[in-house]
Amino acid sequence: MVAQDPQASVLWLQCPNCCSGSVLNFGRILPAPEPGGPVQGLPDDVDEAWQEARQSLGAGAFAASQLVCRKILMHVAVEKGAKTGLSFADYIDHLAAAGYVTPPMRPWVDLIRQAGNSATHDLEPHDEERAVSTLVFTQQLLTLIYAMDHLTKTFVRPPDT
Prior knowledge:
- The chain is mainly alpha-helical.
- 54% of the residues lie in helices and 8% in strands.
- The chain folds into two domains: 1-31, no CATH class; 33-155, Up-down Bundle (Four Helix Bundle (Hemerythrin (Met), subunit A)).
- It has helices at 44-58, 62-79, 88-97, 106-121, 128-155; strands at 10-14, 21-25, 28-30.
């Protein structure tokens, strides 16, 4: 629901899909919409990190979102059999050796890594465009690794023997 005065600087809003409330406060909606979307088949720890990356970006915390996207790569590598405590390069190498990151995917996985490194080590502010691209590439990686496997298990039946 919207307040009666359309010129008001603060408006209360209700989402027509989920019916949750938000406030338009001097041009900014809070809580902010979460970019990206749910990914089916994620393990709990990966899903928790994915939600954190989306929420961070929605709140305008661009560096935080990129840091979590980088961390998601570590979660995925460990979930796919890498030992904990490895270097970040070792996690990426593990995903590549196991076939989860193919040669054409390597540049955009590297983009996730570089964005996270920049968020950690650089003092410059991080822009929304870079954070959105990092989130998009992370979602695609999660979709290829988890959602497609989930859908395969859901829809592909083994042949009758």
